[in-house]
Automatic annotation (TrEMBL):
Zn(2+) binds at residues 267, 271, 354. Binds 1 zinc ion per subunit. Residues 28-214 form the CAAX prenyl protease 1 N-terminal domain. Proteolytically removes the C-terminal three residues of farnesylated proteins. GO terms for cellular component: endoplasmic reticulum membrane. The chain crosses the membrane at residues 6-23, 61-84, 159-179, 185-207. Keywords: Endoplasmic reticulum, Hydrolase, Membrane, Metal-binding, Metalloprotease, Protease, Transmembrane, Transmembrane helix, Zinc. It comes from the Eukaryota. It comes from Zingiber officinale (Ginger). Belongs to the peptidase M48A family. One of its GO terms (molecular function) is metal ion binding. This is CAAX prenyl protease. Its EC number is 3.4.24.84. It is a multi-pass membrane protein.
Length: 418
């Protein structure tokens, strides 16, 4: 008896939709609580709390009532696309389009790029209304948005251009590796993604990030001296210091007090000194890549190599051929339960790293300015003061402010006794 791959995927998608909707309802209820959490009484002003509460509730309209509708439509569409075999139909349509414009759809790279172009157009169309609402209604209503419609569209255009420039060679390389990889396919793909991530880490701050924000060298002065002294004391190989100006897009702020800035940097250097950056990179080296590279980790590719030639798997989703990209997409759907568990585990690890980095900055003597900086960031950005513990544990990679302040204020003797 064939395993019901499609039915299992659809069943889990619907179960996760119900569970995440339940978490959204819990979080919305937490945001509507009229009082500050006890640890923040006297720390956050009532006026700031009311503004943050209003902003959080308003913003949750996008991620609650409006979000519920969006998610309901999305789950219905995703279910329909899979159940009614729209994906194989679109694959054939993209091949016909490639033929129509004079390209050879029998070349799998060309056919795949034609398919991805259609997917990109579809995603831009379906995501645009929600992005516009978030930026020009929610953010603008609370005084955070500084983007003009022209700048918004320019950013979107730049993002599309970057995808068009980087996507084809990456996709082509993946297809060639799968075609030629043989028994060591998983290792070759993992090495390729490892090299790609290292290259992107180098290229992004130099070539890509300046397309969206202005980078200027931090001028000589007391702040620069304090940062350089801190980096030198930790033997961090600091080469350049830049100030990123995002003020043309948003009024969301960072720390302005020099001691608070240095304290936050001490926290970030704590991640480096404690090897958090390396651990995270090894564990999730594909975190910031686009959709075509989301499942490219060693273990996932190892699993993919076991099922990529499974005729039953492809036929379950309506395919009579076995395209490489489609195999990756189908495999991604079949391991969704594992991915949710993995993401939850990584969030727990990330939260632990944040506590450790805070403790590192505290040991360097920055407890007071770090605490003040975290509070100021929470206040100025109108971040949620009340969070549901279930929602936070499932979604947040950083602990809520209440938990971080409690850890910073905890005496060292208490930790040793524990």
């Amino acid at each position: 008896m064939e395993f019901p791959y499609l039915e299992a995927v659809l069943g889990f998608m619907i179960c996760m939709y119900i569970f995440e909707t339940y978490l959204d309802i819990r979080q919305h209820a937490a945001l509507k609580l009229p009082n500050l959490p006890k640890p923040l009484l006297g720390v956050i002003s009532d006026e700031k709390f009311e503004r943050a509460r209003a902003y959080s509730i308003d913003k949750r309209l996008l991620f609650s009532y409006f979000h519920f509708v969006h998610e309901a439509v999305t789950i219905v569409m995703d279910t329909a696309i899979l159940y009614y075999k729209i994906l194989p139909w679109f694959w054939k349509l993209s091949g016909n389009f490639a033929l129509y414009i004079g390209l050879n759809p029998k070349n799998e790279i060309i056919h795949t790029l034609s398919f991805l172009a259609g997917v990109m157009v579809w995603s831009q169309i379906t995501d645009l209304p929600f992005s516009l609402y978030s930026t020009f209604v929610i953010e603008a209503r609370h005084g955070f948005n500084k983007q003009s419609l022209r700048l918004f569209l320019m950013d979107m255009f730049k993002g599309i251009c970057i995808s068009i420039f980087l996507g084809p060679p990456i996709v082509a390389a993946i297809i060639v590796i799968v075609q030629k990889g043989g028994p060591y396919l998983a290792i070759y793909l993992w090495v390729f993604i490892l090299v790609l991530c290292l290259a992107m880490m180098t290229v992004y701050p130099i070539l890509i990030a300046p397309l969206f924000n202005k980078f200027t060298p931090l001028p000589a002065g007391e702040l620069r001296e304090k940062i350089e002294k801190l980096a030198a004391s930790l033997k961090f190989p600091l080469k350049k210091l830049f100030v990123v100006d995002g003020s043309t897009r948003s009024k969301h702020s960072n720390c302005k007090d020099e001691e608070e800035v240095v304290a936050v940097i001490a926290h970030e250097l704590g991640h480096w000194k404690l090897n958090h950056t390396m651990y995270s990179f090894i564990a999730v080296q594909n975190k910031d890549l686009e959709e075509a590279a989301k499942i490219l980790t060693l273990l996932q590719f190892g699993g993919y190599t076991l099922v990529r030639n499974s005729k039953d798997l492809f036929e379950s989703f309506g395919f009579d051929t076995q395209p490489i990209l489609i195999g990756l997409i189908i495999f991604q759907h079949t391991v969704i339960p594992l991915q949710h568990l993995l993401n939850f585990g990584l969030n727990l690890v990330s939260r632990t790293f944040e506590f450790q980095a805070d403790a590192f900055a505290k040991k360097l003597g920055y407890a007071k300015p770090l605490r003040a900086g975290l509070v100021k960031l929470q206040e100025e950005n109108l971040s949620a003061m009340n969070t549901d513990p279930w929602y936070s544990a499932y979604h947040y990679s950083h602990p809520p402010l209440v938990e971080r302040l409690a850890a910073i204020e905890e005496p060292e003797t208490a930790k040793k006794e524990d």
